[in-house]
Automatic annotation (TrEMBL):
Classification via InterPro entries: AA_ABC_transptr_permease_3TM, ArtM/GltK/GlnP/TcyL/YhdX-like, MetI-like, MetI-like_sf
Pfam families cross-referenced by the UniProt entry: BPD_transp_1
One of the protein's GO biological processes: amino acid transport
NCBIfam families in the record: HEQRo_perm_3TM (TIGR01726)
Protein name: Polar amino acid ABC transporter permease
UniProt-annotated location(s): Cell membrane
Organism: Amycolatopsis taiwanensis
């Protein structure tokens, strides 16, 4: 009621929200769409691509054999890399200076030299050690064999790829272990759990949130990195394409065949990686704690219980 006794009425005003117009986005999208159409049309209508030849060789026997070898190299090298990475990570976190230092030197050496150089060295290991054997240092050798017979192109490829990958996986596993909060170790210790059981049942399952996604990235990268073994003459996807176009001189379509297979396989691995990331990304993110608790936990492997700063 107003002072004059007259009742005031409030006029209802309807508020209508007007969406913001993003003209810049529309223009950018239109430009990208036009460029995409031009590129696709150029690729599809370019006679130099020789798409009919691409179709003829896409499922060629030699191409599929090279593809099979590529998948074998990828799988076995990643197994070597993961197992070696776990061992190196455990050694790296040890308070024992010898084991920690040895792991550090390994990681420094294999990450500090080009992979293609490592592959060539493994392939020509006989230049440094004509014979490899097992025996007593400065004493008799029990078993020995010619290095050229032991280190085949396949063995050189697996050693080069697998041992190089182990150096990178070691840092991934180490960061995953250190991402677990120190309170988990203290709680397990209060319950009377041994250090080994704590690592297997509490630390590593939680560390998988950090370890698994980059491991998927490393697997995708390994699939493409296997093409480097062409320098040592191992028959894989890229070398199979090279051998074919060296005979028929169809260089462009054979390179497209190899590229299409790499794209297909990496796409499958990417989808698998995305599913794994969704599975392990559940849960809150945590900050990286101090290294000392990890050293105390992993010290049981080497019989060391002393406290110390992890290198």
């Amino acid at each position: 009621m107003s002072a004059t006794g007259e009742e005031t009425t409030t006029e209802q005003v309807e508020i209508r929200a007007v969406p913001v117009r993003h003209y810049g986005r529309w223009i950018a999208g239109a430009i990208i769409l036009v460029i995409a159409v031009i590129v696709v049309r150029s690729i599809a209508t370019n006679e130099n691509m020789q798409w009919n030849v691409v179709g003829d060789y896409l499922f060629n026997g030699r191409i599929l054999h090279g593809l099979q070898n590529t998948l074998i190299l990828t799988g076995v090298s990643m197994v070597i890399g993961v197992i070696g990475g776990i061992l190196l990570a455990v050694m790296r976190l040890s308070p024992n200076p010898l084991t920690s230092g040895a792991a550090g030197i390994y990681i420094w050496l294999f990450r500090g030299t080009p992979l293609i150089t490592q592959l060539i060295i493994w392939n020509y290991l006989a230049l440094f050690y004509p014979r490899l054997g097992i025996g007593i240092p400065f004493g008799p050798t029990f078993v020995s064999a010619d290095t050229n017979h032991l280190i085949t192109p396949l063995a050189a490829a697996l050693l080069g790829l697998g041992l190089n990958e182990a150096a990178y996986m070691a840092e991934i596993v180490r960061s995953g272990i250190l991402s677990v909060d120190e309170g988990q170790l203290e709680a397990a210790s209060a319950l009377g759990m041994s250090r080994g059981k704590t690592l297997r049942r509490i630390i590593l399952p939680q560390a998988m949130r950090v370890i698994i996604p980059p491991t998927g990235n490393e697997t995708i990268s390994m699939l493409k990195t296997t093409s480097l073994v062409v320098v040592i003459g191992y028959f894989e996807l890229m070398l199979s394409a090279e051998e074919i176009y060296a005979q028929n001189y169809k260089i462009a379509p054979l390179l497209i065949v190899a590229a299409l297979w790499y794209l297909f396989l990496t796409s499958i691995l990417t989808l698998i990686q995305q599913q794994i990331e969704r599975r392990f990304s559940r849960g809150s993110s945590r900050s990286v704690p101090q290294k000392t608790w990890a050293a105390r936990l992993l010290g049981f492997r080497f019989g060391s219980r002393s406290e110390g700063q992890v290198r």
